[in-house]
Amino acid sequence: MGTAALTDKTYITLARIGRSRGVEGEFYIWPLAEDRTRFNRLKNVYLVSGDRRQGGIVESFAEISGKAVIKIAGIDSPEEARRWANGYLEIDVADRVELPEGQYFQDDLIGLNVVSEFGEILGKIEKVLENPANDIYLCRMPDGRSVLIPAVENVIAKIDIAGGKMIVLPMPGLFDDPDDDGRN
Q1: Could you read off the pLDDT of 135-184 as tens digits, one per residue?
Q2: Please, which residues bridge with residue 16 across strands?
Q3: Closest by alpha carbon to 20, among 66, 77, 58, 62?
Q4: In terms of DSSP H, where are the helices of 12-94?
Q5: Which residue segments constitute the domains of the chain, with CATH numbers given?
């Protein structure tokens, strides 16, 4: 189950902005999506850092030594690029690519209710952790505990973005209270 269903959001975060590169205002970005080829097709983006937001046009995108580098029109010096370090690169939700069935954008998963196959609400997805084998969903339970749910078919029965829920087939012990020894 890949992550990368539209929501009512206005902007979508595509990458974290890193340090400046070179003398022409380029900077490194850390894409939040698996498919980096979409950066080659980007035209209009927004740079966001703190309370600052600035629209821009992508002049170029490249992978240099395995690192993603982007150049935005109007940012022409390392000093200007540094102003956006640790910020984010966003696009309008209308410019979002369509994903294949079974793949989801991380921001669509965050906030979903986690529900058992029997309808019991187990918690909410707070974060998506990317791992080489499969993603892991951090679920916050009503009692405040966190549970890590592997994004694999034998655990995730269904993801219903429109319905606001993820139906899971809990593995034994996954949602059990570690302080409950079963002797009540």
Answers
A1: 999 999 999 999 999 999 999 999 999 999 999 997 777 777 666 555 55
A2: 30, 88
A3: 77
A4: 78-82
A5: 8-99 (2.40.30.60), 110-168 (2.30.30.240)
